[in-house]
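Incident log entry.

Two folding requests arrived from the same account within the same minute. Monitoring flagged them as a possible duplicate submission, but the sequences differ. Recording both here for audit purposes.

Request one:
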Amino acid sequence: MKKTIATLIAGLFATAAFAQAPAPAATTPAAAKVEAKQEKQAAKAEVKETKAAAKADVKEAKKEAKADVKEAKADAKAEVKEAKVDAKEVKKDAKADVKEAKADAKHAKAEHKAELKAEKAEHKATTVAAAK
């Protein structure tokens, strides 16, 4: 009986040993180097791609900034032009007002002079009439 139990146990151990999956083959140093090299190349490619994307983003941002500056300059130029036109109109109106004021003053002076002349003539006529 002891022999049968021993045979059964030995058989179990034998089948268990064969039933196991074979151990993975140990990677050789050359294979590890190739794998590391591939990973390194993949990392470099990823970094390169990221740099290219960042560079494109920066380029686009610069382009947008230039467009914004150009638009702002155009707006400012238009505002300056409009202000100049307004200033010319104001200056023209002011000149017309000054001219009108001068004409009014000249007319008032002429009226005053005529009044003085009429008063002088009247005074002269009354003094001459009183002397007679």
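Request two (distinct sequence, not a duplicate):
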Amino acid sequence: MGGRVVSTTRRKARTGITVLEVTISIAILSMFLLGSAAAYVGVLRGAKDARRTSRAGVYLASVMEDLAAEPYDNLAGLNGSTFHDQPTVQGSAFVVELSVFPAAVNLLQLRAIVKDPNSNRELARVVTLRCNP
């Protein structure tokens, strides 16, 4: 009779991981870490921009307080003026451009725009009215 011969020896089960599995897992892990690093850099850049915009707003508020102390008759002469936050233009982090023009009889409109002098990007803007007392 033709019978099958059954082998009683089994192959040993392979334990451990292969080089291919290690390579794939390292590739996946490195992609995750690169994505996380890029997100972290983006968050740091956003925080820096927010801090800079906040400082620009504080500087603009101080300029507007100084303008509030100016007499009404002197305001028209300030049209086209620029104010810097440092004594020299080169060292300034912010530049405020001021526009003053009549809005109505005995009413002046003041528009102050604070910009980054390096990129000329607008950081904040204030428009207000002053009347002749």
